[in-house]
Backbone:
């Protein structure tokens, strides 16, 4: 922001230094891992998908309000007031963390043992401790299903990245002012809120009812989440493909509506991930999720930008090239979920619980 404000005196290339701030704290990826771990510590397995969904809805409020609000402000007061409002909101969010209590249930005996091991002055012992902790962290990857779920983070990240160039895409393809594109993006946010608050909860209840046809009925909450995640990815593929094929703005909006209906994929897959690790390792799991999303961002943004540039050069229907490629990538990601299996111990506990209720 400083570089842009003083662009006449500071070389614009210094914008690249903005990423150096991620060396302190790690940025959104680390923050997301911490929040997901806190939610996991504070909820049961049955409540977890709903809790992740509430987090998703909270983020949707920003997706829904910010594009329209920024467009409204830019048209009336220029580009800088929206920037300062954004900074103020981030500061307020940071202050809110001061009032969040500890969520992990501590194990004093285990912590004392770890502290004694860590406090050992011997360098060899310290190295051995680091290696053991690293091996312990790798234990969360023992199941092939958790590896497949983590790989979905790589394939799903470009879906989020599309929002960063969607404004330019809409403005170029449909010849509307950049400041007005926020209203179109807000439609996507509205559909996501409806999907998260109304449609997905209704489907979650529907597939668990005894009156539901056997073909659509889920055996338990975990199989339900897996089934809904697969369907969400399938709907997402259709919506993304529609965005690329849409030659008119109404057609693009229709694609956004379809895409919004499948927007629960992230919440559902993260809820499934927590089934494969014990509570003590879940913070490491979601830190790994954050790392995978960072890796996804590394290739997603340059890939989409390059495809957008290529599509503009080719012209015609090829302008939708980023969305064509993205739909193929998401379809490949969705295919990974076909090989995911609910952990055996979770299935057994669900059966035992049902027998107890009967």
Residues:
């Amino acid at each position: 922001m400083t570089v842009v404000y003083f662009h006449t005196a500071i070389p614009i290339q210094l914008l690249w230094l903005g990423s150096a701030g991620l060396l302190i704290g790690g940025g959104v990826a680390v923050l997301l891992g911490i929040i997901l771990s806190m939610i996991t510590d504070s909820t049961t397995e049955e409540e977890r998908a709903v809790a992740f969904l509430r987090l998703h809805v909270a983020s949707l409020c920003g997706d829904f309000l910010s594009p329209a609000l920024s467009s409204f402000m830019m048209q009336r007061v220029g580009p800088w007031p929206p920037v300062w409002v954004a900074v103020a909101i981030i500061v307020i969010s940071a202050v809110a963390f001061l009032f969040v209590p500890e969520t992990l249930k501590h194990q004093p005996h285990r912590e004392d043992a770890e502290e004694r091991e860590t406090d050992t002055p011997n360098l060899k012992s310290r190295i051995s401790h680091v290696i053991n902790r690293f091996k312990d962290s790798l234990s969360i990857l023992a199941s092939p299903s958790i590896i497949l779920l983590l790989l979905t983070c790589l394939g799903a990240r470009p879906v989020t990245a599309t929002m960063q160039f969607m404004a330019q895409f809409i403005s170029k393809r449909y010849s509307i002012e950049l400041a007005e594109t926020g209203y179109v993006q807000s439609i996507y946010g509205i559909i996501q809120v409806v999907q998260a608050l109304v449609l997905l909860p209704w489907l979650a209840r529907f597939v668990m009812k005894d009156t539901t046809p056997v073909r659509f009925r889920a055996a338990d909450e975990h199989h339900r989440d897996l089934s809904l995640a697969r369907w969400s990815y399938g709907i997402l593929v259709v919506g993304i493909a529609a965005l690329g094929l849409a030659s008119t703005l109404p057609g693009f909006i229709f694609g956004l509506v379809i895409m919004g209906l499948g927007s629960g994929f992230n919440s559902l897959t993260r809820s499934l991930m927590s089934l494969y690790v014990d509570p003590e390792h879940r913070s490491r799991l979601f830190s790994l999720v954050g790392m995978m999303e960072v890796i996804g961002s590394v290739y997603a943004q340059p890939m989409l930008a390059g495809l957008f540039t290529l599509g503009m050069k080719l012209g015609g229907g090829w302008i939708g090239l980023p969305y064509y490629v993205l739909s193929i990538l998401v379809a490949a990601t969705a295919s990974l979920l076909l090989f995911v299996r609910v952990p055996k111990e979770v299935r057994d506990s669900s059966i035992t619980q049902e027998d107890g209720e009967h």
